[in-house]
Amino acid sequence: MTGRIEGMGVVVTRPRAAADALAAELAREGARVWRLPALAIEPIEPDAALVSLLGGLASFDLAVFVSANAVERGLAAVRRSGQWPPGLQAAAVGEATAAALRDEGIAEVVSPRDRHDSEALLALPRLQAVRGQNIIVFRGQGGRGELGESLEARGARVAYAECYRRVRPEADAAPVVAALGRGEVHAVSVLSGETLENFIAMVGAEGERGIARVALVVPHPAIGAHRDARRFARVVVSGHGTEALVESLGQLKNEHIATDEHR
Prior knowledge:
This protein is an alpha/beta fold. It has two domains: about 10-40 and about 170-260, Rossmann fold (3-Layer(aba) Sandwich); about 50-165, 3-Layer(aba) Sandwich (Rossmann fold). It has helices spanning about 15-30, 50-55, 70-80, 95-105, 120, 145-155, 175-180, 195-210, 220-225, 240-260, and strands spanning about 10, 30-35, 40-45, 60-65, 90, 110, 135-140, 155-160, 165, 185-190, 215-220, 235. The strands form three sheets. A five-stranded parallel β-sheet has the order 2-1-10-11-12. The protein has a five-stranded parallel β-sheet with strand order 6-5-4-7-8, with helices on both faces. Strands 3-9 form a two-stranded antiparallel ribbon. Helix 3 (about 70-80) runs parallel beside helix 4 (about 95-105) and helix 7 packs across helix 8. The longest helix is centred in the C-terminal third of the chain and has 20 residues, at about 240-260. The chain is elongated, with a radius of gyration of 20 Å.
């Protein structure tokens, strides 16, 4: 049986474990996949300020987790300091993050169903009336500030538990650069602006000439508006999740077929 994206050349830029899982899914649908992890997650040793913050976790009204990495690293840091307070409500940016919390035993999670971004979470009723509440946001070092700033604007007191760092990994970009030069790549999948910046730096000037002929596929319009997105032939906003990505790649494939037929 022919896959939905048979013959499509796709570069996957997620962190290594996630890249491997996605590459397997895309290969099952017939794609030829190159893996170039352009972001890596590293744990950071909790300093005295973070230990003190997590020691007072019971004083918070809501804990917000921005990603599955924040769940993994954040709860590990919490366990070093004690236990998760039974009455503390959790919120998640997206269903994957919510699922990670449920897997860790936190059953009741506030999370948007249809979209997977901070704006969708902030639109939920629970995060509308937060005046006077103490909210802790679990995230990586130097994470986006819009979520906390919006909560503060609504009258909440916000603290940040930064429990991991994002770095550009050491990876060999030569196979991807070569594939771009041969015209074998049709799309590059990127999940964040930081990943996009790293990818551009990793492929260098030679790779950049190749990406001018391929599509950039992103899950959110904000990533598509990044300055580096203009280096690609076009930007496709797929939505979140593997199925949405496959559907977008399938549409790109059909467009290529239609273009070839009219030549």
